[in-house]
Amino acid sequence: MAREWGLSFRTFGYLVLVAFIMVFTFGLLWHNSHRFQWVSSVNILCSNLQLQNNYEDIQKDIKIQRLFDEDPSSEVNVKFPRMVYPKPLAVGPPSRTDVIVMTPWFAPIIWESTFSINILNEYFKERNIIIGLTAFAIKKYVVFTEKFLKTAEEYFMVGHKVNYYIFTDRPKDVPNLPLKEGRKLHIIEVRNYAQWQEVSMRRMEMINNYTKTKFIKEADYLVCVDIDMQFSDHVGVEILSDVFGTLHPAFFGASRDSFTYERRSESLAYIPPDEGDFYYAGGFFGGTPQEVYRLTKACHEAMMEDKKKGIEAVWHDESYLNKYFVYHKPTKILSPEYLWDNGMGSLPILKKKRFLAVPKNHAAIRSNDRK
Ligand code: 4GW
Ligand code: MN
C-alpha cells in the first residue's frame, strides 16, 4: 500500500508512529478532563413568581443547580429572583418634568415616581444591610420618642434590618415599644447641655464618637434625624448612598442670596455669596459610617474652632453641615418630601409627605422648668 502511494517503508513507519503518539496523547487528555471535572454544566432554574417583597418565598423557589460529573452533593442555593416590571425608557418623556432629579455632579435627587422601590429593595436586600437610625431625645424632647418610633415601625425601611439609636439623658423615659423582627432599640445615655443651641450642635460630636466605637461595627448605613418628627409615608432604601443630605423645605425654591448660610467670614461655616448649591436641612442627613464619621468630625471640629474664637454660626450645626456639603458634595439628595412641615402647606410638586415635623409648643417644650 505504501508503495502504491509512492512512500518508502521508512516514511510510512514514521507516519504510523506519529499517528499512534497523537491518538495516545489525546486519549490521555480526554480521560483527565473528565476525571478532574474540567467540564461541568450549569442549570438555572427560575420560578414564575411575580416580583414581590416576600424574600423567603423567592429564595425557596429559586436556585441554581450545578451538575458535576462525580459530585451530586455540590448543589447550592442562591438568590436569583425574577425581575418583572415595565421596561425603563431609554428615550422618551422623563417621569418628572417639574423638578430636577440630578445635580450637576450627577447625584440623584429623590422625588416620588423617580424610583422603583421593588428594584431597590431587591438590590439592598441581597446585600443584607443594616440601617442605623440616630435621633436625640434630650430633656423634654424625650416626649417625641414614642410617636417617632411607632411611625418608624410603620414606614421606615420596612422589610430591612434597623437599629434605632436613641441618644438621651433620660433613658427611663424612652418607651419600650414592641418592634418588628430584625429591628432593635439601642438607648445611648449621654449628658445634656444647658443651652439648647449646644444640645443641637453637640449631636455632631456624639454621632462622631459613637460611629467610631459602635455604629461602624453594627450598621452599613446611618440615617441621622431630628426627633420632633413623625414618619407619615414610605422612607426606604432609595435614600441610601455614600453621603446624603436633604433639601430644606423652606429653601428648595429659593435663590442663593436668600439661603441662610453663615455670612460672617470669621466663622468656619462661612460660605461666600457666589458659592453653594442648595440649602440643606440639619434634621436629615446620613451615609455610610465612614462618610458620616468624616462629616460629623469636620462639623464638630469647625464648631470647636469657632467656639474658641467666641463665634457660633447663625443656624448652629445646620450652618456647618451646609459648609461641609459645598466642598464635599453629597452623592444623593433627598427632596423635601423627606422633611416637611405642614406649616408650609401643600404644593403640587410634593406628591408625598414622608417625614413630618410634629407641631410643638415652643414655649412649653423649650422652657427650662421640668414637667
Ligand atoms: C430650645 O429651647 C430648644 S431645646 C431647641 C432645641 C432643643 C432640643 C433639641 C432639646 O431640648 N432636646 C433635644 O433632644 N433636641 C434635639 O435637637 C432633638 O433631636 C431635636 O429634634 C434636635 C433639633 O432641635 P429642634 O428640632 O428643636 O430644631 P428645629 O426647631 O429646627 O426643628
Ligand atoms: Mn426639629
Write a concise keyword list for the protein shown above.
binds manganese (II) ion; single chain; binds ligand 4GW; eight-stranded mixed β-sheet; 371 residues; alpha/beta; two-stranded antiparallel sheet; 2 domains; Spore Coat Polysaccharide Biosynthesis Protein SpsA, Chain A; 8 helices
Outline the structure in words.
The chain is of the alpha/beta class and 371 residues long. It has 2 domains: 2-70; 109-365, Spore Coat Polysaccharide Biosynthesis Protein SpsA, Chain A. Helices cover 31% and strands 15% of the residues. The strands form 3 sheets. Strands 3-11-9-10-7-4-5-6 form an 8-stranded mixed beta sheet. It has a two-stranded antiparallel sheet with strand order 1-2. Strand 4 (130-137), helix 4 and strand 5 form a beta-alpha-beta unit. The N and C termini lie far apart (116 Å). Residues 34-70 have low confidence and may be disordered. It binds ligand 4GW and manganese (II) ion.
Reported for the largest beta sheet, the result is: 8 strands, mixed
Q: Strand-residue fraction?
A: 15-25%
The name CATH uses for the topology of the largest domain is: Spore Coat Polysaccharide Biosynthesis Protein SpsA, Chain A
Structural class, from helix and strand content? alpha/beta
Q: Overall mean pLDDT score?
A: 87
Report the end-to-end length measured between terminal Cα atoms: 116 Å
Q: Write out the strand line-up for the largest beta sheet, numbering strands in chain order.
A: 3-11-9-10-7-4-5-6
- CA radius of gyration: 31 Å
The CATH homologous superfamily of the largest domain: Spore Coat Polysaccharide Biosynthesis Protein SpsA, Chain A
